[in-house]
Fold this sequence. Notes:
The chain is of the alpha+beta class.
Amino acid sequence: MAELELCIPYKSKACQVGVVATAALMPLWGIAIPFFLGLLTSQIIQNPHQIPAIVAFALIIALIAIPAFAIVLAAIFEDDLIVVSREGIAFPLRMLPNLAFKRERSWHDLKFATLSSADSGKGSTDRLLGLNFGNGGSVVLKLKDMERTDLEQMLLAIEIWGENCNRPQDLIEFQNDLQNDNLGLTAISYTKMWEEELSRRFSNTSFIPLKPGTTLQNGRLAVIRQLAFGGLSAIYLVQLKGSELVVLKEAVIPGNSDKASREKAQEMFEREAKLLVKLSHPYIARVLDHFRENERHYLLLEYIRGQDLRQLVSQKGPQSQQEVVQWGIQIADILSYLHSQSPAIIHRDLTPDNLVLGHDHKPVLIDFGAANEFVGTATGTLVGKQAYIAPEQLRGKACPSSDIYAMGGTLFYLLTGQDPEALMVSHPRDINQDIDEDLNRLVAQCMSMEVADRPENPDRIKESLEAIAARIGTASPAAVPSTESA
């Protein structure tokens, strides 16, 4: 996670009505009243004895107070964010009276979190989350006024940081059910991107993951919960030094592998992990550390909050050419940086699943192939998503151009909503005839079977995409036929 702060929109109906009302009345308090105030002031200056002084004073105060009061009300109604950080929770201004006029409350002060129901007056009930603070004050939040994924993160923050908070069993069960439900939504569950990423990669084998509460590195890392596990790897949400949330990726070599395979896998993992730790790029999730403990190997990764591109397409369908071209330029920049390292770093697993939209709506690369190569070498099995794997990579001869092949497959998916056919040159125009010819040609070229037929490097792809972007400009997005998302 790049920064430990979550801004949760809390859009109550009363707040929305207030925003609309203050906006509708703006011509009155923002224009008419200041105009009359100017007329009144001018009249008093020109005829000081025409209006009694006390009346004039009262009118001026009233005409000043009304716009000021309206501005304050507008600010209160428009403030609809609950800000959650590792320091505590900050609530919207309108909740101040219930909080003893202490807007920011620390986790240490949070004593109780409760779940209840109330009649909404329309034949249905509202689920309510109550937060009670030791230094006075409490708030009651309607769950329907928050997005489910935001609520999931808020409850997780209370679980992790609210050490003094008493959570009844019904709230704990609700939180677990909410997380499970979010895994089935088309909208993003923040743990889902890791769970899906793992499940698409590893087959089921005998593997016992770490339990919540387990500590590593002499207590430096504490496992909060499993995000996913399966095959020979697991992914955990962990706390670093008792505060920062990070992701821990675990890989295990099976005990029945021969000594030579184990040594080769260990060497590969450690060598590549050391290279990854040195990377510094604004759109690559940082690999914070790597270590070995109890015959297991670990990568410690930055926790990026956001929606991956596969989930985005699953939810909203194929994306516009303009959007895909801009993302392609960003992806080409990422690959250019990786391939420029000495030695060149080959990602090996560039897919829509491993690209998450960051806060600025640009794709961030969240995972690397180090552990995958490590596991694949030890077991002799293919690890990865075959539709995005270049022929030479399938033969165990991955090279920088293999990432270009995967990038072509990713662009194909974003444009069509369908995974490309494995080991085939894919043309997005076969799915949607409105896709630009040059863009179609570039995607197909990236997915050429022979390395020599693909673009020479990511910089060439970027140049082509920039030329396409300059030509298609802000034209209307291509109409996309109705198809099921892959």
